[in-house]
Design a protein that fits this description.
The protein is of the alpha+beta class and 296 residues long. It has 13 helices and ten strands. The two termini are 36 Å apart.
Length: 296
């Protein structure tokens, strides 16, 4: 899992807490539409989840649901979808109180920054539900820590809650990667020793003039077998993946202040014109626009 650890070390992630309170009576919320991932943690009571994959799914204390791609959803007091549509407002009370038939919620956003297009993030499902009874190790400890901090009420720190939420998401990615039955192609590739060797080599020498044949030989595949396996894991050809990884790396380096030609050579392009053309095709704007971010 060295490749995953490298990704976690460099992953651009920022969590912001925008709500922590008790809600009562008829209430519902849909936090989609911002372009950011959102999450909801139930700290007490019961709520219900309505989304593409869940219809009135009960949420209890310690359950957390994440929407990595800003998918529409409703978190509500009722498992009846029609009732939830007429309950789009709620009155909030201090989360540390004890009120009958109330639900404690901590809600926030994840901003993935320049890593929003990384294959790991792109392959995540629209909705990830992590039940409290299924949590173990770091995941369980971080969820308990989030609840304990939130229940401090006025003394709780949104900064601490945000940092703990970021740690939770990193731990969640590691948890998903270790599942033998993972449905995510990237994580299945990491668990395939031959494919993981190829992907690690790309990351460690991103500027090398890789070819389909050289990558296949590195992993001990035939050319046809390698292309087939890679497509199944990553839903792209090896060279498409290589280009995407190179340009993602380039974007970060440009925003860090490196020159266009320096970055172009670093990621394997022989001249800045070819690099600029590929960069604009990938992002819709040229490398100069990204480098300008370093000065803002």
């Amino acid at each position: 899992m060295a490749l995953l650890n490298d990704f976690l070390n460099s992953f651009q992630l920022n969590a912001t807490i925008f709500h922590r309170s008790l809600v009562c009576d008829a209430w519902s919320t849909d936090t989609s539409g911002t372009g950011l991932a959102s999450f909801h943690l139930v700290t007490s009571g019961t709520a219900y989840l309505h989304s593409d994959n869940y219809l009135g799914e009960p949420l209890n204390q310690g359950d957390i649901v994440i929407f990595p791609h800003d998918a529409p959803h409703i978190i509500s007091y009722s498992d009846n979808l029609e009732l939830t549509k007429n309950a789009n407002n709620f009155v909030a009370y201090s989360i540390e109180q004890s009120l009958p038939q109330s639900t404690g919620l901590v809600c926030g956003y994840f901003d993935f920054g320049l890593d929003k297009q990384h294959p790991i993030i792109k392959q995540l499902p629209n909705c990830i539900l992590v039940k409290y009874q299924e949590q173990q190790g770091a995941l369980k400890g971080l969820i308990q820590g989030l609840m304990d901090e939130a229940l401090l009420g006025a003394d709780a720190s949104d900064a601490i809650l945000g940092r703990m939420s970021e740690l939770f998401f990193l731990a969640l990615l590691r948890h998903l990667a270790k599942q033998n039955d993972s449905q995510l192609g990237y994580f299945r590739a990491l668990n395939d020793p031959k494919m993981a060797k190829v992907m690690m080599a790309i990351e460690q020498d991103i500027g090398k003039q890789w070819s389909l044949m050289s990558l296949a030989e590195l992993g001990g595949f035939s050319r046809a077998s390698f292309a087939q396996h890679f497509k199944r894991y990553m839903n792209s050809t090896p060279l498409e993946y290589l280009t995407r990884i190179r340009l993602s790396h380039a974007q970060k380096q440009l925003e860090a202040g490196k020159s266009v030609i320096q970055v172009a050579l670093e990621v394997g392009y022989q001249d800045d014109a070819a690099f600029a053309k590929a960069y604009k095709r990938q992002f819709g704007f040229g490398p100069g626009a990204s480098r300008a971010q370093a000065n803002t």
